[in-house]
């Protein structure tokens, strides 16, 4: 075996310290209690620093990072251009009583860049934008019901969760309707069964859920959904929080050949600086203007400056093309490494936002064992989540990843 095996003594000690003062030690999907880190002994819990396509944990182990902070790292950690723009704005001011004109600059750039955008509204998290989108749709249509596609994820606000989740009330989700992905016939039936009652359809541009292969839209699917929403006066919301700018700088709706009424961005928007955006069509401008919806830090200027620099650099790099090329190279290498050892590795979804699954074992235990061997050798993946690429990932990084995969398959 050629690659050294990581040890995580400091991470384990820091986690014990965290448990005493933080619920779960690390809460949410980045914590060991969520099920994406199995076995937990294979994964580091705390990082020390990051640069480019790598991060280093508190034990000094370096990882080629295919989670990219769960998406915000789009150009490379601590990108010099973005950080310089942010530092320049910070020297002038960040959170001030009145907003900086950087907010206008950023909104103008988004409207210029995103095909379906006539305006932009800024917040902090992806869930802020999906919630605002649903509020806007309900206010505009004066209807209650929202259609979701099964396997969705649109944040953690009560309206996005399920009736059997802790703390969720029937009233939170009583107006939610769930339809199978790519099943236009069922969607049309739902609209007929709830005539004049559906405020919006909300969806990711393609199905990139967890614990299952990712699925692209069927031919003509989005065009039919678009027409159905237009004909019935319902709002079409695209949650582009994960996929946004990785498929198409004009938006993932543009990539698939249609226009959303509302489109939600966050992760890749500013290369890790804390900002999100809801963009929308002109006919919804007055409605969103009339909502009571804000936050303490939503008008902070530093992330706006970072976002401007990030979008400009993504344009210059022709980022979607670059990520697609890197993703295809990685996909071919990983599949070949699996085949060499007799395994069927499925790589699904867009190459820039790929999902991995060893298909030889429906229990997923074999897949979890392989992921653990990858992480222990310095390639950071998680078991049941889609993965992300960033512009700084080099051919040498990809080559090393495939070599580690080859060794990890041999261990199985």
Structure description:
The protein is α/β, with parallel strands linked by helices. It has two domains: 9-65 and 319-411, Alpha-Beta Complex (Aspartate Aminotransferase, domain 1), CATH 3.90.1150.10; 80-317, 3-Layer(aba) Sandwich (Aspartate Aminotransferase, domain 2), CATH 3.40.640.10. Helix content is 38%, strand content 14%. It contains 13 helices and 13 strands. It has helices at 9-19, 80-92, 102-113, 126-141, 170-173, 184-193, 221-232, 252-255, 285-289, 301-317, 319-340, 365-376, 395-411; strands at 47-51, 54-57, 62-65, 119-123, 145-149, 176-179, 198-203, 235-239, 262-265, 276-280, 345-348, 355-358, 379-380. It has a seven-stranded mixed beta sheet with strand order 4-10-9-8-7-5-6, sandwiched between helices. β11 (345-348) and β12 (355-358) form a beta hairpin. It is globular. It starts with 8 loop residues before the first helix and ends with a helix.
């Amino acid at each position: 075996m050629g690659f050294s095996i990581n040890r995580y003594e400091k991470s384990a000690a820091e986690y014990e310290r965290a448990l005493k003062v933080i619920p779960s030690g690390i809460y949410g999907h980045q914590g060991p209690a969520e099920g994406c880190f199995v076995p937990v002994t294979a994964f580091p819990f705390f990082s020390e620093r990051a640069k480019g396509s790598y991060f280093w944990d508190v034990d000094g182990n370096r990882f080629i990072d295919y989670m990219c902070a769960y998406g915000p790292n789009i150009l490379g950690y601590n990108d010099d251009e973005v950080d310089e723009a942010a530092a320049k704005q910070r020297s002038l001011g960040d959170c001030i009583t009145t907003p900086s004109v950087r907010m206008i600059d950023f909104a103008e750039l988004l409207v210029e860049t995103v095909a379906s955008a006539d305006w932009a509204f800024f917040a902090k998290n992806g869930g802020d934008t999906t919630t605002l989108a649903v509020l806007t749709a309900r206010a505009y249509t004066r209807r209650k019901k929202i259609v979701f596609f099964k396997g969705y994820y649109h944040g953690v606000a009560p309206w996005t969760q399920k009736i059997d989740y802790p703390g969720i009330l029937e009233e939170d989700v009583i107006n939610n309707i769930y339809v199978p992905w790519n099943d236009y016939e069922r969607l049309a039936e739902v609209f007929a069964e709830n005539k004049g009652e559906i405020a919006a359809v909300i969806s990711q541009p393609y199905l990139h859920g967890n614990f299952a292969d990712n699925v692209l839209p069927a031919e003509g699917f989005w065009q039919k959904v678009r027409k159905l929403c237009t004909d019935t006066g319902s709002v079409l919301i695209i949650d582009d929080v994960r996929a946004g700018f990785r498929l198409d700088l004009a938006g993932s709706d543009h990539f698939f050949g249609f226009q959303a009424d509302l489109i939600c961005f966050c992760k890749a928007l500013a290369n890790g600086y804390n900002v999100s955006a809801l963009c929308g069509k002109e006919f919804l401008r007055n409605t969103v203007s009339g909502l009571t919806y804000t936050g303490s830090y939503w008008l902070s200027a530093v992330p706006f400056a970072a976002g401007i620099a990030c979008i400009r650099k993504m344009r210059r790099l022709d980022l979607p093309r670059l990520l697609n090329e890197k993703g295809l190279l990685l996909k071919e290498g990983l599949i070949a490494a699996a085949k060499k050892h007799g395994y069927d590795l499925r790589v699904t979804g867009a190459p820039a936002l790929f999902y991995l699954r060893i298909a030889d074992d429906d229990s997923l235990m074999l897949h979890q064992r392989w992921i653990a061997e990858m992480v222990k050798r310095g390639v950071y993946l998680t078991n049941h989540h889609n993965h992300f690429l960033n512009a700084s990932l080099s051919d040498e990084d990809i080559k090393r990843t495939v070599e580690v995969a080859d060794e990890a398959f041999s261990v199985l």
